[in-house]
């Protein structure tokens, strides 16, 4: 799950290693990406190669979850107003 506003994207629920088969986890601090700086969203603040720089980047972006709350509230309200209607796909 993610919220995108302009060039920023905040991941609330993530799947490790880029696989849809992995279980979804919810980090204590959402992952924040600037899509202009990292268009493939490769910067993982928990990875050893990023180390201090990744933690520093995340610490500098702690404002993002607060800024994303109105967008998340609007999205959740839209799901109540217009619930998902996709049914199961059945083969003939």
Jot down its keywords.
92 residues; two-stranded antiparallel ribbon; globular; 2 helices; three-stranded antiparallel sheet; alpha+beta
Description:
Helix content is 32%, strand content 17%. It is an alpha+beta fold and 92 residues long. A 3-stranded antiparallel β-sheet has the order 1-2-5, covered by helices on one side. The mean pLDDT is 76.
Write the H/E string, N to C.
Answer: EEEEEHH
* Structure annotation, total helices: 2
Structural class: alpha+beta
Beta strand count? 5
Which band does the percent of strand residues land in?
A: 15-25%
Q: Give the tally of structural domains.
A: 1
Measure the end-to-end span.
Answer: 32 Å
Mean pLDDT: 76
Broad shape: globular
Unreliable spans: none
Strand order of the largest sheet: 1-2-5
Largest sheet entry: 3 strands, antiparallel
Classify the helix fraction into a percent range.
25-40%
Helix and strand arrangement:
Blueprint (H helix, E strand, L loop, with lengths): L1 E4 L2 E4 L2 E2 L8 E2 L5 E4 L16 H10 L2 H19 L11
In short:
The protein is an alpha+beta fold. It is built from 2 helices and 5 strands.
């Amino acid at each position: 799950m993610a919220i995108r506003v302009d060039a920023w994207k905040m991941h609330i629920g993530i799947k490790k290693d880029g696989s849809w088969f992995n279980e979804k986890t919810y980090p204590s601090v959402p992952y924040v990406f600037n899509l202009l700086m990292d268009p493939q969203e490769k910067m993982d603040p928990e990875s050893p190669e990023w180390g201090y720089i990744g933690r520093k980047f995340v610490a500098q972006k702690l404002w993002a979850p607060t800024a994303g709350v109105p967008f998340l509230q609007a999205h959740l309200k839209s799901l109540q107003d217009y619930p998902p209607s996709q049914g199961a796909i059945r083969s003939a």
